[in-house]
Structures are given as structure tokens and as C-alpha cells.
Amino acid sequence: MPLRLPHVLLESVFVKSGILSSTCTWRLRLQYAHRGFHLSAAAAATPKGKYRQEKPGRGRSGSKTLSKTQFKPTSRTRLVRDLKSKSPTGKYEVARNTHGPSSASKQAATLKEILKDDSVNGRTNSPHSHIVLGEQKLAIEALLDEEFDRSISKIIGQLPESFSSPPLMPSFAQSMKDVLGPDAKPTPIQSLALKHLFSLPRNSKDWNQFLLASETGSGKSIAYLLPLLQLLKETEASATYPPSQLATNPRALVLAPTHELSRQLSTFAKALVHHAKLRVLCASRANVPSTAGARGRGRSARQMMHVVSALSNENKVHGQIEVQPQGLSGARPIDLLVSTPVKALEMVRGWGWDKVVNEEWEREGRIFRPGKPEMGLKRVECVVIDEADILFDPDFRETTLTLLSDISAARGYPVPENAQTINYPFHLILTSATIPASLSSYLTKHHPSLTRLASPNLHRLPATLHTEHVSWTGGNRYADIERRLRRVWAEDALRGTDPETGRLRRSRVLVFCNRSNSVDALGEHLEAKGIPNVTLTSMGSSRAHGSNRHLAGFVKGTERQEATDAEERETPHALITTSLLSRGLDFSPTVQHVFIVDSPRNMIDFLHRAGRSGRAGEHGKVVVFGKLKGRGSGFDTSVKDKVRALSRR
Ligand SMILES: Nc1ncnc2c1ncn2[C@@H]1O[C@H](COP(=O)(O)OP(=O)(O)OP(=O)(O)O)[C@@H](O)[C@H]1O
Fold this sequence. Notes:
Strand order of the largest sheet: 3-10-4-9-8-5-7-6
Distance between the termini: 30 Å
Organism: Phellinidium pouzarii
Structural class: alpha/beta
EC number: 3.6.4.13
Helix content: 40-55%
CATH topology of the domain at 150-236 and 246-285 and 332-454: Rossmann fold
CATH class of the domain at 150-236 and 246-285 and 332-454: Alpha Beta
Keywords: ATP-binding, Helicase, Hydrolase, Nucleotide-binding
Number of helices: 22
Bound molecules: adenosine-5'-triphosphate
Radius of gyration: 27 Å
InterPro entries: DEAD/DEAH_box_helicase_dom (IPR011545), Helicase_ATP-bd (IPR014001), Helicase_C-like (IPR001650), P-loop_NTPase (IPR027417)
Largest sheet: 8 strands, parallel
């Protein structure tokens, strides 16, 4: 137990003695009120009149002290400041439990200003610790406001409470029963989609733009797929089929950041069109940042060769899609293409379109011949961008925008260069579980007419997700993780055998690290300790095959009824990865445990990682490892505070 002394007394002693500047007393007080008296890195003494500029990283080693004139706001601080000085972001329509502009966030903004002033002027806040605790909550809310757009502000009336209003076509109603069971009720974001997206104009030049934003595992895939597929089915007869030499001429595109997610979404879409008999094609390969240099591009082009062959194999496996030139064969064209933007662009422009021919090639007189285009875009009526915050992130934005421009040009409405307001000649639906401030301001600037639909729990952890913070013991961290894994499985054993299989249940655990080399090192450690596991990183060779087979072993495990407990123990029950798999993938109900072993880089990352469990109302548990006590614990304790704020309802 830390020694608790009256903090006002401590404060005045430290300030008067010059050990502590009054500029940081508020931070000290927040810490004190929360945990007893610890001098943390954040509250450590700063000479009077100076600002502390923190470099990314933890603890004091990354900070340097600057004079007032030297202080430069970080890009994030600048962004927040700029955002504040500009017009408010677009408005959201929320599903339920709505209220006017969040008073908490208003108070938080005010408080942030007060805190900022205090740190400059050396004023002190109220000495009452309960008030300080309230202030701490608000300060944390204010920090979260810097990361996300939380300006939910519009009240709406009644929303559809079943999937029969508006009526689904019988084929889709049947598929929904097959997929979700007969009693499924729409989630809030699905209710909003039922209200707005089923009335998208058909066969007209009135194109709409929507943003669907709701917490992880809240059913966004159905929210956009169902109206999209119904639109495609309804317009199927009237859609024209201009002769084309190109193999693929889809009527809609769903874009996702990873090929794992593209695979999963296309499988899901195929289940939904089982009775409606629409044609869904998945074409994907691992995405690379569009800002990657020549080296990155060259590498991805090489990887491509593997994927093309795997892709055709996969089509054979599913037996649903044969990619043939439509104009030549007269085959019915693809209705929906699910893809990564990189792969889609490659199909449009031809393999190697972005290849940079290096000097060595030129010297050797080698000729590079890019591939031929395979996909036409004239017929595209609707584009969905899943995980929009990633695909509009500066790393991927160039590729995404190039593809959207290509579609516009192919449809006869090229996007004017440097256009401020962009109106694409197709319906555009963006979805994400997190709306960073940067995406929000981009949309406000370029898509002012976009309608934002948000669930009331956007930017909150799912209610069914339990969070536990575990402190490192100070010894070998991999051993700490191993111990915790064994504890999960020991708890499973206490629950006895599964009544369905008659075998001992053994939970599957998804472990997130920040770096690929940590993934590999942890995987090796666990393997050496007799814990079979799957490791997956962005450049891992298992991804090159273009299917999700590398995940299947972990997700499905030993399904054979006759498998023994020993066999079950030998199959991997831990999947170790980076944020690569934190986006969109649905492991429910298999995965109920998530371990976050490296501090998440930001709360957006945290929400997505944690959100791989506790999905669709299932119980889930996320274990966050960190240094929670003593010197250098400031970063991890602030993560803990923010996580608590994200769990608050
Ligand atoms: N109305 C519903 N009732 C019950 N389960 C549902 C419903 N809608 C979707 N689900 C199930 O919820 C799970 C999560 O859905 P989905 O993957 O679409 O979530 P998401 O909101 O896209 O999550 P993320 O933000 O992580 O991408 C899926 O297993 C899906 O089958």
C-alpha cells in the first residue's frame, strides 16, 4: 500500500522547495488522487517556465526539456488544435440512447483548456481529491476526444426492429435465417442500415454517400452487405451487359485492407447470396502501403505471382466462379468483387503497372512488360470501403483514391484534379469501428454531403468484454505470458468436459504483439515450452498463398469427434500476431481470450485488438500486460485509465 499523505501539503512542500514546478502539480495531483503518492515520469520535476516535450516511447528517457519559445506542438497536437479552430465535423445519426452534444466531451474540452492554462500560468486547481478524480476522468475523456471523433449529436425516432422491415426479398430472408437463425434481431447499426440503405436510388444518377460507424463485433458486415446485395438483385434484370474483352466487370466492389478480411467477407457474402444466386468473386493479396518505395512495390509484385495461382485454385475449390472474358464467352458477369485496393487496381491497370524499373535492369537491357488489364469498371454502381480509417490513412489513401478515380473515369465522370468536394458517380459506403479525427476532418472537407450513421456505443468496448490488467513480474516476460496462457487452460479444465464433444474444452487465445520479431520470439519460446502455436506476420510465408488456410488450423482446431484429448492438446490454441489481424476478422465464437502483450500504440489500435473477442453479444476477455507500478509505469497506467474510460457507459 502506498503511503497516503495529504497531497496539498506535499504539493506545497515540493513547490516551495523548488523541487517541483507548479506547472506539473495538476498531473501530480491526478496521480495522487488515483493511486496514492508516486512521483511518476509525467509528474517529475520540470524547471519552472519550461515545457516537457515527450518523444514517442516510454518513461523519462524519451523526454527533453524545452524553453517556451522552443516548444513545438506535435503533429497530433497541431491537428487537434487545427480541428478545434475549424468548423465542427459532420453530424452523426445515432441508433438509440442519443442525446445532444455530449456534455462530458464539452466539459472535457473546457477542462483541457483549463489544464493547459494551468500548466502555463502555474495556477493550481481545487485541492479536493474527489473533484480531482472527476477531473481526471474528464481529462482522460479529453485525451480520447483527441484520438476519435466523438461528436455524436443528432436524435432520431423509431428504427426497424426486425429484418422484415423493410421487407427482404425471400431469398435473402431465407439466407439470414440460415446464417443467424430464425430469431435474430438487427443490431443498432443494422437498424440504421435498414432505414437508410435499403432506399438507395436504383438506376439513377442520384448517388449517395454513407458512413457506418459502430463498435467492433456489432454486425457492420451484414449492415452493408444485405442492402447492397438486395440492390444488386433488384437491378439484375435491368443491368446492361456491354460486351467486354475483360474477364471481370463487377457491379459492386467491397474493399478491405487485408486479404484475410477480404476472404472472410467474400465467404460471408457467398452465404448471403446462396439462395439469390448472385456471383461473388474474391481477389486479394496482401496490401502494401501506397507510399512504399520501389523496393516495397517490387516485392509485392513478386508475391503477386503466388497469389494469382492460389486465387485460381481457390475458385476451383469453391466451384462457384470461373473467371472468363465475358465478352467472349457470354458468361454471366460478376456481381460483387471483394478485394484489397492494391489487387483491384492491379486487375484494372494490369500486373506490374506501378513497377519501378531499376537501373540494373536497364543496364542489362531487360524489358519489363506489365500485364494486361483484367477488370472493367464501367458497371460499378456501388463501392463499400470496409475499415475506412485504414484505407483512408495516409499510407493507403493514394491507392484507394486512385481506384475510386479510375472507377469514376470509367463511368464517364472523371474526378476533377484538386477537387475540394468529391461526388463519385456511384454509391459510396464507408464503414469502421473507429473514426479518427483525421478521417472525420477529411470527410467533412471532401464529402460534406456524406450521411454518418453511428451506434450509441461507438468508440466503446463491447459491454460483454471483460478487461484485466496484468503487471509484468519483472522477470522473463515470455514466461509471464506462458504462465497466463496455462492459467486460462487450467480454468477451462476446472469447468469440465464439453457436453457436445465430451472432450476437455481448451480456449483459443489470440496474442497481439507490436513487432514481427516479438511474434516470432514469443512463438519460439512457447513452442520450446510445449505450447503449439501459430505465428502470423505481414511478411510471413503462409500468407503468400492467398487463402485463409493458415488461419483455419487455429480457428477450427481438431473438429473430429474421435480426436483424443491428447490430439486436441497438440493442435495450436494460441495465435500470435501483430495488428495485421486486428482489423475486421471475426473469430467468434471460437476466440474468447485476447492477450495484448505490447502496449497498444494508441486507443484505436487497442479497440480493434480487444474487439476480436466479446463479439455479437458473446462473452470475451482481454488481458492487457504492462508495467503498472514504479518507475517507467506512466505510459501503461495511462493506457489502463483510458481503457477504463472506454469501458464506461
Ligand atoms: N443481428 C445479429 N444477431 C446476432 N449475431 C449477429 C448479428 N449480426 C451479426 N452477427 C454476428 O456478429 C459477428 C460480428 O459481425 P461483424 O464481423 O459483421 O462485426 P463488425 O461490426 O464488422 O466488427 P469489426 O468492427 O470488428 O469489423 C458475426 O459472427 C456475425 O455473424
